[in-house]
Amino acid sequence: MKRTTPVIPAEDIQRQKEYCAQLRALNSRLPSPPLAYVDTYGCQQNEADSELLRGMLCEMGYEIADTDRGADVIVINTCAIREHAEQRVFGNVGALVHGKRKNPNQVICLCGCMAQEPHVANRLRQSYRHVDLVFGPQQLWRFPELLRRVALRRGRVFETERDDGAIAEGLPVRRSGKLKAWVSIMYGCNNFCSYCIVPYTRGRERSREPDIILREIEGLAAQGYKDITLLGQNVNSYGKDLEGGWDFPRLLEAANAVPGEFLLRFMTSHPKDATDRLFDVMARCEKVAPAIHLPFQSGNDRVLGAMNRRYTRGQYLEKVAALRGRIPDVVLTSDVIVGFPGETTPEFEDTLSLIEEVRFDALFTFIYSPRKGTPAAELPDPQPRGEKSANFDRLVEAQNRISLEKHRAYIGSVRRCLIDGAGEDPRSSLTARTAGGRLVHLDGDPALIGRFADVRITDCSTWALFGELV
């Protein structure tokens, strides 16, 4: 299939496998297998990247640890979306110096989106000298090569030059569980929302080939995975760099045809690219979950324009109406930024009125966090922090009320749920998820974990449902 984005040649991937074999040979000489710990911050794409990192570490002869205590290799996979997350990472990285003093041979690696920010890389280089390896998301496929350079003590390694990225296939993966799986269908972003650092850290949009994606889904279904999420910074842009007529609705329809008992989810969808055709495919494909995460960010048209979102409030509401016209009980979640530079409280009221009109099942709400290198970081921001916080509290209060009302409507209904884990409360020994992704607490035999079951909803809270097996 012809494409406009590059693919890493197979011989380069094979070379990384050879580096894995060399490190495995070195590690096999040790009295016991060395330990590696991967700590993940941020989005589902980072979770998927960490599964690749763990897969490569296993190929190198490391055993995966649940904590950094006693680990020979520590990998911190970072997120750059908000300032708070960055400061947490710096704090945790700084604390690792104590373990490094006890074990000077320990290798500390920092990767992910933060590593691709020049000011972060410079700070790590100058002030965190116990960090041995720093690399951005586009260099993840070269992890064995980079770790080998550190292991052979050729000094600290920084691979953070700007890179639009390519597609790397054939990397090993060590998945976090046996029921739920992430499948990356594309990488990067071309949207350049004015507040977002992701296009600068993850590069341009590039799609994996559909036959490779579908084979991966087939393999997961054959292994018994029940909940498969297709990932991309904007899944609705899938296929724009491919020839052959592939786009996201066609891929979703093809994935639905894969044999097996499982649910398909996807995220994230940019509203400007969410089409009636996508909604039609969701409605007629029985394996596609009746749920969508559709970030609107602001309910005010001036603010949306300043954010470079490329849709209006009215257009967003039209898409919601079109979606609910096809799937009336769709679970709709979204993201909201409060206090974008220049936003006034009257403009915030438009956001508040939008959530009252749409009535989302849940929201992910944030006070604006400036990201160095983005256009929004240079905008004047006169609104006091206290006013932003007050608006944020009003938004959360309104959404919590709506979420509780939406959950109360479930009481008395019977829902097909995936029993996905053990509960922490003795009265609710199991957890489950509805097809729409709502959390359900219930009691039952742990042998049911991994199965679909009918559950009668008996009660609820703002954030969860409670039920009993039918």
Number of domain modules: 4
Helix percent band: 25-40%
Going by CATH, the homologous superfamily of the largest domain would be Methylthiotransferase, N-terminal domain
Q: Which strand order do you get reading across the main beta sheet?
A: 2-1-3-4-5-6
Major sheet size, sense and barrel closure: 6 strands, parallel
CATH topology of the largest domain: Rossmann fold
As residue ranges, the low-confidence spans are: none
For this structure, what is the CATH class of the largest domain? Alpha Beta
Distance between the termini: 49 Å
Beta-strand share of residues: 15-25%
Count of distinct strands: 19
- Mean pLDDT score: 95
CATH architecture of the largest domain: 3-Layer(aba) Sandwich
Which radius of gyration do the C-alpha atoms yield?
23 Å
Spatial shape: globular
